[in-house]
Design brief:
3 helices; four-stranded antiparallel β-sheet; alpha+beta; three-stranded antiparallel β-sheet; single chain; 26% strand; disordered N terminus
């Protein structure tokens, strides 16, 4: 019986670079959100402010707990770069390499920490994986809880692919 790893990978399916959430940042981020949620619910129960404030605090606390769980689920996956696409390890295609129009890695770019920003030629549905990536129309942010070395390596490969594509178009 052969496993998935034993099957030959085609050139377009070969993973060139990956970016995963750093363990320490992952647990710190989830822990802070969960602690905030529990504290807000605790204050609503123990301090017994006015009913409106109690409901507000409980809703805010539940939202923080929900966000901690969403972050937990999102950071279990990793970002994978192949020759044709940038995808999440759960199969979600973040962007096709052919659609990438530009990249911002600068100090003042509106990008996730330790990451980079991509602009694509066509928009896609808005999605957010806290700590890993987000997509809003034509803009895609990669990074957040990822180590800087992994995202820098990934952005360098994407930049090289874009330059290679431009050279082919110029010929």
């Amino acid at each position: 019986m052969t496993s998935f790893n034993d099957l030959p990978q085609t050139a377009s399916n070969e993973i060139l670079a990956t970016a995963t959430a750093a363990t320490g940042r992952r647990y710190l981020g989830m822990g802070m959100l969960a602690l905030l949620g529990l504290m807000l619910i605790y204050i609503a129960v123990v301090q017994s402010p006015a009913l409106e404030w109690r409901l507000f605090l409980v809703l805010l606390g539940a939202g923080s707990l929900w966000m901690a769980d969403k972050m937990r689920r999102a950071t279990q996956t990793r970002i994978e770069l192949t020759e044709t696409e940038l995808r999440d390890s759960d199969g979600t295609v973040i962007a096709l390499i052919a659609d990438i129009d530009g990249m911002d890695r600068g100090f003042f770019a509106f990008k996730p920490s330790n990451g980079f920003l991509l602009r694509t030629t066509s928009g896609a549905s808005n999605e957010w994986r806290p700590g890993l990536w987000w997509r809003c129309g034509r803009r895609i942010g990669i990074g957040g809880m990822t180590p800087a070395g992994q995202t820098k390596f990934m952005s360098e490969i994407i930049a090289a692919m874009m330059a290679q594509r431009e050279m082919k178009l110029d010929k």
